[in-house]
Amino acid sequence: MILIIACGENEKQKQLELKVEKMSKELDSLKTSFAWHNMIQGYKDIAEIPKKVEFTFDSEGYQALKSNLGLILFISIDKIENYLDGIKIRFNIGNPYFVDFSGGEFSLTWGEKTKYHQFTKEIKRGS
Length: 127
Known about the structure:
By secondary structure, this protein is of the alpha+beta class. It has one domain: Immunoglobulin-like, CATH 2.60.40. The protein is about 25% helix and about 30% strand. The protein has one helix spanning about 10-40, and strands at about 65, 70-85, 85-95, 105-110, 115-120. The protein has a 3-stranded antiparallel β-sheet with strand order 1-2-3, with helices on one face. A two-stranded antiparallel ribbon has the order 4-5. The longest helix is centred in the N-terminal third of the chain and has 32 residues, at about 10-40.
């Protein structure tokens, strides 16, 4: 008995598309890892990475931040806007790890005031 299996052009195209999609994801992951590596290479030791960061209204780029658990995250200002009788600041949190974080807590200090904020939004891996 002879069995002949033919792979049609549509099937070949699907396989190639899946392969390209997989390679694209791997490339994005490598780019992210490389970018995070470049951001922390200025530190001689991970112990030097601060547990707090300071921003001004014209701050640009990410700053490395070491959490209480010793994890390194990257923080930047995304958007600043007037809100009621004050301002509203939206931050980007960069996660260089290959795991998702499902929330956490941080504190914001301005002047003499400190406010603790819990977030429940998931921080995706490699974001």
